[in-house]
Protein backbone atom coordinates (compact mmCIF):
# COMPACT_ATOMS: atom_id res chain seq x y z
CA UNK A 1 0.00 0.00 0.00
CA UNK A 2 1.50 3.26 -1.06
CA UNK A 3 1.79 6.12 1.32
CA UNK A 4 0.01 8.90 -0.50
CA UNK A 5 0.84 12.13 1.20
CA UNK A 6 -0.69 14.48 -1.34
CA UNK A 7 -3.55 15.50 0.94
CA UNK A 8 -1.33 16.03 3.99
CA UNK A 9 -0.85 19.72 3.50
CA UNK A 10 -4.49 20.48 2.82
CA UNK A 11 -5.95 19.15 6.04
CA UNK A 12 -7.13 21.80 8.44
CA UNK A 13 -6.80 21.63 12.19
CA UNK A 14 -10.45 20.62 12.38
CA UNK A 15 -9.93 17.82 9.87
CA UNK A 16 -7.10 16.48 12.03
CA UNK A 17 -9.26 16.68 15.11
CA UNK A 18 -12.05 14.72 13.43
CA UNK A 19 -9.58 12.16 12.08
CA UNK A 20 -8.22 11.65 15.60
CA UNK A 21 -11.79 11.30 16.84
CA UNK A 22 -12.50 8.50 14.36
CA UNK A 23 -9.36 6.75 15.53
CA UNK A 24 -10.33 7.07 19.14
CA UNK A 25 -13.85 5.87 18.44
CA UNK A 26 -12.42 2.82 16.60
CA UNK A 27 -10.97 1.54 19.84
CA UNK A 28 -14.35 0.16 20.83
CA UNK A 29 -16.45 0.54 17.71
CA UNK A 30 -15.88 -1.39 14.52
CA UNK A 31 -17.93 1.30 12.80
CA UNK A 32 -17.83 4.65 14.54
CA UNK A 33 -21.25 6.34 14.51
CA UNK A 34 -21.29 9.93 13.35
CA UNK A 35 -22.68 11.35 16.61
CA UNK A 36 -19.83 9.70 18.49
CA UNK A 37 -17.27 11.27 16.14
CA UNK A 38 -18.91 14.59 16.82
CA UNK A 39 -18.88 14.03 20.55
CA UNK A 40 -15.20 13.04 20.69
CA UNK A 41 -14.08 15.79 18.34
CA UNK A 42 -15.60 18.31 20.71
CA UNK A 43 -18.32 20.87 20.60
CA UNK A 44 -16.07 23.54 19.13
CA UNK A 45 -16.46 22.14 15.66
CA UNK A 46 -20.03 20.96 15.91
CA UNK A 47 -21.07 22.88 12.89
CA UNK A 48 -18.17 21.80 10.72
CA UNK A 49 -17.92 18.16 11.65
CA UNK A 50 -19.89 16.92 8.67
CA UNK A 51 -17.77 18.91 6.31
CA UNK A 52 -14.62 17.51 7.91
CA UNK A 53 -15.99 13.99 7.64
CA UNK A 54 -16.71 14.49 4.00
CA UNK A 55 -13.23 15.98 3.38
CA UNK A 56 -11.57 13.05 5.09
CA UNK A 57 -13.69 10.48 3.26
CA UNK A 58 -12.97 12.14 -0.08
CA UNK A 59 -9.23 11.62 0.34
CA UNK A 60 -9.69 8.10 1.69
CA UNK A 61 -8.56 8.64 5.28
CA UNK A 62 -11.85 7.36 6.62
CA UNK A 63 -14.44 5.21 4.86
CA UNK A 64 -18.16 5.15 5.18
CA UNK A 65 -19.59 1.86 6.37
CA UNK A 66 -23.20 0.91 6.36
CA UNK A 67 -23.80 -1.30 9.27
CA UNK A 68 -27.01 -3.25 9.94
CA UNK A 69 -27.95 -0.88 12.70
CA UNK A 70 -26.40 2.44 11.84
CA UNK A 71 -24.14 4.23 9.38
CA UNK A 72 -20.74 5.35 10.43
CA UNK A 73 -17.07 5.51 9.54
CA UNK A 74 -13.94 3.53 10.02
CA UNK A 75 -10.36 4.65 9.87
CA UNK A 76 -8.47 3.40 6.78
CA UNK A 77 -4.81 2.46 6.70
CA UNK A 78 -4.24 5.77 4.96
CA UNK A 79 -5.88 7.57 7.87
CA UNK A 80 -3.71 5.72 10.34
CA UNK A 81 -0.62 6.59 8.25
CA UNK A 82 -1.55 10.27 8.39
CA UNK A 83 -2.09 10.26 12.13
CA UNK A 84 1.25 8.56 12.69
CA UNK A 85 3.06 10.95 10.35
CA UNK A 86 1.49 13.89 12.05
CA UNK A 87 2.67 12.64 15.44
CA UNK A 88 6.19 12.15 14.16
CA UNK A 89 6.11 15.60 12.69
CA UNK A 90 4.89 17.17 15.91
CA UNK A 91 7.40 15.20 17.96
CA UNK A 92 10.13 16.53 15.62
CA UNK A 93 11.06 13.01 14.64
CA UNK A 94 10.31 13.51 10.95
CA UNK A 95 10.60 16.67 8.95
CA UNK A 96 10.62 15.49 5.37
CA UNK A 97 9.62 12.43 3.48
CA UNK A 98 11.80 10.76 0.85
CA UNK A 99 11.61 7.67 -1.33
CA UNK A 100 10.16 4.33 -0.60
CA UNK A 101 13.11 1.94 -0.38
CA UNK A 102 11.45 -1.27 0.56
CA UNK A 103 8.29 -3.20 0.30
CA UNK A 104 8.75 -5.88 2.86
CA UNK A 105 6.40 -8.76 3.28
CA UNK A 106 4.56 -6.88 5.95
CA UNK A 107 5.88 -3.39 5.91
CA UNK A 108 6.60 -0.38 3.77
CA UNK A 109 9.93 1.33 4.27
CA UNK A 110 10.61 4.98 3.48
CA UNK A 111 13.66 7.13 3.81
CA UNK A 112 12.78 10.25 5.78
CA UNK A 113 14.79 13.01 7.38
CA UNK A 114 14.60 15.09 10.52
CA UNK A 115 14.91 18.88 10.60
CA UNK A 116 18.71 18.65 10.72
CA UNK A 117 18.79 16.51 7.60
CA UNK A 118 19.65 13.30 9.42
CA UNK A 119 18.50 10.39 7.29
CA UNK A 120 16.10 8.07 8.98
CA UNK A 121 13.89 5.16 8.05
CA UNK A 122 10.15 5.11 8.56
CA UNK A 123 8.81 1.59 8.79
CA UNK A 124 5.06 1.23 8.45
CA UNK A 125 3.86 -2.14 9.63
CA UNK A 126 1.13 -3.67 7.55
CA UNK A 127 0.27 -6.96 9.07
CA UNK A 128 -1.93 -9.31 7.18
CA UNK A 129 -1.20 -7.77 3.81
CA UNK A 130 0.34 -10.72 2.04
CA UNK A 131 0.08 -13.68 4.32
CA UNK A 132 -3.63 -13.29 4.20
CA UNK A 133 -3.59 -14.21 0.56
CA UNK A 134 -0.85 -16.80 0.57
CA UNK A 135 -1.21 -19.19 3.43
CA UNK A 136 -4.33 -21.21 3.68
CA UNK A 137 -4.34 -21.56 7.43
CA UNK A 138 -4.10 -17.80 7.65
CA UNK A 139 -7.17 -17.33 5.63
CA UNK A 140 -9.00 -19.49 8.09
CA UNK A 141 -7.53 -17.61 10.97
CA UNK A 142 -8.04 -14.20 9.48
CA UNK A 143 -11.37 -14.76 7.83
CA UNK A 144 -13.36 -13.05 10.47
CA UNK A 145 -10.86 -10.41 11.27
CA UNK A 146 -12.09 -6.91 11.45
CA UNK A 147 -10.13 -3.92 10.22
CA UNK A 148 -9.72 -2.98 13.85
CA UNK A 149 -7.70 -6.05 14.62
CA UNK A 150 -5.47 -5.61 11.56
CA UNK A 151 -4.63 -2.23 12.91
CA UNK A 152 -4.25 -3.61 16.39
CA UNK A 153 -1.75 -6.21 15.18
CA UNK A 154 0.19 -3.68 13.11
CA UNK A 155 0.43 -1.40 16.12
CA UNK A 156 1.56 -4.31 18.26
CA UNK A 157 4.26 -5.15 15.75
CA UNK A 158 5.52 -1.56 15.80
CA UNK A 159 5.36 -1.31 19.57
CA UNK A 160 7.18 -4.59 19.97
CA UNK A 161 9.82 -3.72 17.41
CA UNK A 162 10.47 -0.37 19.06
CA UNK A 163 10.62 -1.88 22.56
CA UNK A 164 13.14 -4.49 21.49
CA UNK A 165 15.19 -2.00 19.52
CA UNK A 166 15.45 0.31 22.51
CA UNK A 167 16.78 -2.44 24.72
CA UNK A 168 19.11 -3.92 22.08
CA UNK A 169 20.49 -0.53 21.16
CA UNK A 170 21.10 0.34 24.77
CA UNK A 171 22.97 -2.94 25.19
CA UNK A 172 25.23 -2.09 22.28
CA UNK A 173 23.92 -4.56 19.73
CA UNK A 174 24.62 -3.60 16.12
CA UNK A 175 21.18 -2.35 15.09
CA UNK A 176 19.81 0.96 13.76
CA UNK A 177 19.18 3.45 16.54
CA UNK A 178 15.44 3.61 17.27
CA UNK A 179 14.18 7.17 17.19
CA UNK A 180 10.44 6.98 17.78
CA UNK A 181 7.23 5.11 17.30
CA UNK A 182 3.66 6.06 16.74
CA UNK A 183 0.82 3.65 16.13
CA UNK A 184 1.92 1.17 13.44
CA UNK A 185 5.16 2.97 12.62
CA UNK A 186 8.74 2.98 13.85
CA UNK A 187 11.37 5.57 12.98
CA UNK A 188 15.00 4.52 13.13
CA UNK A 189 18.42 5.36 11.81
CA UNK A 190 18.96 4.84 8.10
CA UNK A 191 21.75 2.32 7.55
CA UNK A 192 23.64 2.97 4.36
CA UNK A 193 24.37 -0.66 3.54
CA UNK A 194 23.11 -3.53 1.44
CA UNK A 195 21.17 -6.49 2.73
CA UNK A 196 23.40 -9.56 2.82
CA UNK A 197 21.33 -11.29 0.17
CA UNK A 198 22.62 -8.78 -2.38
CA UNK A 199 26.25 -9.56 -1.70
CA UNK A 200 27.79 -12.05 -4.09
CA UNK A 201 31.12 -12.65 -2.46
CA UNK A 202 33.09 -11.62 0.57
CA UNK A 203 36.85 -11.86 1.02
CA UNK A 204 36.63 -13.63 4.38
CA UNK A 205 33.32 -15.42 4.75
CA UNK A 206 34.58 -17.18 7.90
CA UNK A 207 34.83 -13.82 9.67
CA UNK A 208 31.32 -12.66 8.75
CA UNK A 209 29.96 -16.10 9.57
CA UNK A 210 31.59 -16.06 12.99
CA UNK A 211 30.23 -12.57 13.66
CA UNK A 212 26.71 -13.66 12.77
CA UNK A 213 26.81 -16.83 14.86
CA UNK A 214 28.31 -14.71 17.62
CA UNK A 215 25.29 -12.44 17.47
CA UNK A 216 22.84 -15.33 17.66
CA UNK A 217 24.66 -16.68 20.70
CA UNK A 218 25.00 -13.29 22.37
CA UNK A 219 21.26 -12.74 21.99
CA UNK A 220 20.50 -16.15 23.45
CA UNK A 221 22.72 -15.43 26.42
CA UNK A 222 20.59 -12.33 26.94
CA UNK A 223 17.49 -14.58 26.74
CA UNK A 224 16.52 -13.58 23.20
CA UNK A 225 16.14 -15.14 19.77
CA UNK A 226 15.80 -12.96 16.68
CA UNK A 227 13.47 -15.44 14.99
CA UNK A 228 13.99 -14.16 11.45
CA UNK A 229 17.76 -13.92 11.29
CA UNK A 230 18.46 -14.28 7.60
CA UNK A 231 20.05 -12.60 4.59
CA UNK A 232 17.13 -10.19 4.24
CA UNK A 233 17.36 -8.91 7.77
CA UNK A 234 21.11 -8.49 7.99
CA UNK A 235 22.60 -5.39 6.46
CA UNK A 236 26.31 -5.55 5.80
CA UNK A 237 28.24 -2.36 6.25
CA UNK A 238 31.64 -1.91 4.63
CA UNK A 239 34.07 -0.16 6.94
CA UNK A 240 37.50 0.85 5.66
CA UNK A 241 40.09 -1.09 7.64
CA UNK A 242 43.43 -0.40 5.95
CA UNK A 243 46.43 -2.51 6.84
CA UNK A 244 50.07 -2.08 5.84
CA UNK A 245 49.73 -4.93 3.35
CA UNK A 246 46.33 -3.93 2.04
CA UNK A 247 45.51 -0.21 2.28
CA UNK A 248 42.15 -0.76 0.59
CA UNK A 249 40.99 -3.47 2.96
CA UNK A 250 37.41 -3.38 4.14
CA UNK A 251 35.83 -4.79 7.22
CA UNK A 252 32.29 -6.13 6.93
CA UNK A 253 30.07 -5.34 9.88
CA UNK A 254 26.66 -6.99 10.08
CA UNK A 255 23.73 -4.92 11.34
CA UNK A 256 20.51 -6.63 12.38
CA UNK A 257 17.07 -5.29 11.52
CA UNK A 258 13.45 -6.46 11.66
CA UNK A 259 12.45 -7.40 15.19
CA UNK A 260 8.69 -7.96 15.50
CA UNK A 261 9.07 -11.73 15.72
CA UNK A 262 11.74 -11.86 18.43
CA UNK A 263 11.07 -14.40 21.14
CA UNK A 264 12.38 -15.19 24.57
CA UNK A 265 14.49 -18.30 25.13
CA UNK A 266 11.66 -19.31 27.43
CA UNK A 267 9.20 -19.41 24.57
CA UNK A 268 7.76 -22.88 24.06
CA UNK A 269 9.32 -23.14 20.57
CA UNK A 270 12.52 -21.32 21.45
CA UNK A 271 14.85 -24.09 20.38
CA UNK A 272 13.10 -24.41 17.04
CA UNK A 273 13.51 -20.69 16.33
CA UNK A 274 17.10 -20.71 17.47
CA UNK A 275 17.95 -23.67 15.24
CA UNK A 276 16.13 -22.11 12.33
CA UNK A 277 18.13 -18.88 12.66
CA UNK A 278 21.38 -20.88 12.76
CA UNK A 279 20.41 -23.18 9.88
CA UNK A 280 19.37 -20.27 7.67
CA UNK A 281 22.77 -18.62 7.97
CA UNK A 282 24.59 -21.92 7.39
CA UNK A 283 22.56 -22.61 4.29
CA UNK A 284 23.08 -19.12 2.92
CA UNK A 285 26.85 -19.25 3.42
CA UNK A 286 27.04 -22.66 1.74
CA UNK A 287 25.03 -21.61 -1.28
CA UNK A 288 26.23 -18.09 -1.76
CA UNK A 289 29.84 -18.12 -0.53
CA UNK A 290 30.56 -21.87 -0.76
CA UNK A 291 31.57 -21.70 2.85
CA UNK A 292 30.94 -24.39 5.44
CA UNK A 293 32.21 -24.05 8.95
CA UNK A 294 34.22 -26.89 10.48
CA UNK A 295 32.51 -26.30 13.74
CA UNK A 296 29.09 -27.78 14.41
CA UNK A 297 26.44 -25.67 16.09
CA UNK A 298 26.02 -23.34 17.80
CA UNK A 299 23.46 -25.29 19.80
CA UNK A 300 20.63 -23.91 21.86
CA UNK A 301 21.68 -25.77 25.01
CA UNK A 302 25.22 -24.41 24.93
CA UNK A 303 24.17 -20.92 23.99
CA UNK A 304 21.72 -20.60 26.85
CA UNK A 305 23.90 -22.33 29.44
CA UNK A 306 24.56 -19.98 32.31
CA UNK A 307 22.32 -17.33 30.77
CA UNK A 308 20.27 -17.15 33.95
CA UNK A 309 23.13 -15.21 35.46
CA UNK A 310 23.11 -12.67 32.62
CA UNK A 311 20.77 -9.82 31.66
CA UNK A 312 17.27 -11.01 30.81
CA UNK A 313 16.43 -8.64 28.04
CA UNK A 314 13.11 -10.39 27.40
CA UNK A 315 11.99 -9.30 30.86
CA UNK A 316 13.29 -5.79 30.35
CA UNK A 317 11.24 -5.48 27.18
CA UNK A 318 8.17 -6.63 29.05
CA UNK A 319 8.83 -4.01 31.66
CA UNK A 320 8.77 -1.37 28.92
CA UNK A 321 5.05 -1.90 28.50
CA UNK A 322 4.96 -4.58 25.86
CA UNK A 323 2.95 -7.01 27.93
CA UNK A 324 2.63 -10.80 27.87
CA UNK A 325 -0.89 -10.48 26.51
CA UNK A 326 0.33 -8.30 23.65
CA UNK A 327 3.17 -10.69 22.97
CA UNK A 328 0.72 -13.57 22.85
CA UNK A 329 -1.64 -11.84 20.42
CA UNK A 330 1.21 -11.09 18.08
CA UNK A 331 2.82 -14.49 18.54
CA UNK A 332 -0.27 -16.23 17.42
CA UNK A 333 -0.16 -14.28 14.20
CA UNK A 334 3.59 -14.61 13.64
CA UNK A 335 3.48 -18.35 14.18
CA UNK A 336 0.90 -18.63 11.47
CA UNK A 337 2.99 -16.93 8.85
CA UNK A 338 6.60 -17.73 9.74
CA UNK A 339 9.38 -15.31 8.91
CA UNK A 340 10.80 -13.85 5.72
CA UNK A 341 12.50 -17.17 5.20
CA UNK A 342 9.25 -18.95 4.47
CA UNK A 343 8.84 -16.78 1.41
CA UNK A 344 12.18 -17.52 -0.13
CA UNK A 345 14.20 -20.62 -0.77
CA UNK A 346 13.25 -22.33 2.41
CA UNK A 347 9.54 -22.44 1.73
CA UNK A 348 7.80 -25.04 3.82
CA UNK A 349 4.53 -24.60 2.06
CA UNK A 350 3.18 -27.83 0.68
CA UNK A 351 3.35 -27.94 -3.11
CA UNK A 352 0.10 -27.00 -4.71
CA UNK A 353 -0.94 -24.84 -1.85
CA UNK A 354 -2.35 -21.89 -3.67
CA UNK A 355 0.60 -19.61 -3.73
CA UNK A 356 -0.03 -18.33 -7.20
CA UNK A 357 -0.61 -14.84 -5.99
CA UNK A 358 2.23 -15.02 -3.55
CA UNK A 359 3.71 -11.62 -4.01
CA UNK A 360 7.23 -11.56 -5.19
CA UNK A 361 7.49 -8.02 -4.05
CA UNK A 362 9.22 -9.12 -0.88
CA UNK A 363 12.25 -6.90 -0.49
CA UNK A 364 12.70 -6.50 -4.25
CA UNK A 365 12.91 -2.76 -4.12
CA UNK A 366 15.64 -2.83 -1.57
CA UNK A 367 18.08 -2.67 -4.49
CA UNK A 368 17.89 1.05 -3.94
CA UNK A 369 18.70 0.73 -0.29
CA UNK A 370 21.62 3.10 -0.66
CA UNK A 371 19.54 5.83 -2.26
CA UNK A 372 19.46 9.14 -0.51
CA UNK A 373 16.44 11.29 0.08
CA UNK A 374 16.22 12.94 -3.27
CA UNK A 375 12.61 13.84 -3.51
CA UNK A 376 12.18 15.69 -0.32
CA UNK A 377 8.76 16.79 0.54
CA UNK A 378 8.32 19.12 3.44
CA UNK A 379 5.46 18.66 5.78
CA UNK A 380 3.80 21.89 5.11
CA UNK A 381 0.98 21.12 7.44
CA UNK A 382 -1.55 23.45 8.83
CA UNK A 383 -0.96 23.64 12.54
CA UNK A 384 -3.28 21.17 14.14
CA UNK A 385 -5.39 21.75 17.15
CA UNK A 386 -6.29 18.11 17.56
CA UNK A 387 -5.92 16.50 20.91
CA UNK A 388 -2.23 15.82 21.45
CA UNK A 389 -2.73 13.24 24.15
CA UNK A 390 -2.14 10.23 21.95
CA UNK A 391 1.02 11.41 20.35
CA UNK A 392 4.34 9.98 19.36
CA UNK A 393 4.36 7.25 21.87
CA UNK A 394 8.00 7.06 22.53
CA UNK A 395 10.44 9.63 21.35
P1 LIG B 1 9.99 -6.54 6.82
O1 LIG B 1 9.48 -6.87 8.16
O2 LIG B 1 8.91 -6.12 5.91
O3 LIG B 1 10.89 -7.62 6.25
P2 LIG B 1 12.41 -4.99 7.31
O4 LIG B 1 12.56 -4.28 8.60
O5 LIG B 1 13.18 -6.26 7.15
O6 LIG B 1 10.86 -5.21 7.03
O7 LIG B 1 12.79 -3.99 6.14
C1 LIG B 1 12.65 -4.33 4.77
C2 LIG B 1 13.85 -3.82 3.98
O8 LIG B 1 13.98 -2.41 4.10
C3 LIG B 1 15.17 -4.39 4.48
O9 LIG B 1 15.50 -5.61 3.86
C4 LIG B 1 16.17 -3.29 4.15
O10 LIG B 1 16.63 -3.43 2.83
C5 LIG B 1 15.34 -2.03 4.25
N1 LIG B 1 15.54 -1.43 5.58
C6 LIG B 1 14.80 -1.62 6.69
N2 LIG B 1 15.25 -0.90 7.73
C7 LIG B 1 16.32 -0.22 7.28
C8 LIG B 1 17.23 0.71 7.88
N3 LIG B 1 17.11 1.08 9.16
N4 LIG B 1 18.20 1.23 7.10
C9 LIG B 1 18.33 0.86 5.80
N5 LIG B 1 17.51 0.00 5.18
C10 LIG B 1 16.51 -0.55 5.90
MG1 LIG C 1 12.71 -8.22 6.86
From TrEMBL:
The processes (GO biological process) annotated in the record are: maturation of SSU-rRNA
Q: Which GO terms describe its cellular component?
A: cytosol; nucleus; preribosome, small subunit precursor
Which keywords does this chain's UniProt record carry?
ATP-binding, Kinase, Magnesium, Metal-binding, Nucleotide-binding, Serine/threonine-protein kinase, Transferase
Q: Which E.C. number(s) belong to this protein? A: 2.7.11.1
According to UniProt, the reaction catalysed is: L-seryl-[protein] + ATP = O-phospho-L-seryl-[protein] + ADP + H(+); L-threonyl-[protein] + ATP = O-phospho-L-threonyl-[protein] + ADP + H(+)
Q: What class of enzyme is it?
A: transferase
Full protein name: Serine/threonine-protein kinase RIO2
Native organism is: Polychaeton citri CBS 116435
Recite the lineage of the species: Eukaryota, Fungi, Dikarya, Ascomycota, Pezizomycotina
Amino acid sequence: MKLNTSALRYLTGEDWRVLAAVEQGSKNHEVVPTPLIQQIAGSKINTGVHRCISNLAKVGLIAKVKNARYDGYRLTYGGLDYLALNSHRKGNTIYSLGNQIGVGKESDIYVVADADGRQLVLKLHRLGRISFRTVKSNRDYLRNRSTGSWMYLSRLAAQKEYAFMRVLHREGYPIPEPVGWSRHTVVMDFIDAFPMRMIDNVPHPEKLYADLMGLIVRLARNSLIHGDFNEFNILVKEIPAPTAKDPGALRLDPIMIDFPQMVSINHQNAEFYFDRDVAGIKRFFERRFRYTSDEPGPFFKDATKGSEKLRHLDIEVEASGFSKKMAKDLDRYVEQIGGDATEVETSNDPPGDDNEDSEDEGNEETEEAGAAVDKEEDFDLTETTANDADDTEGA
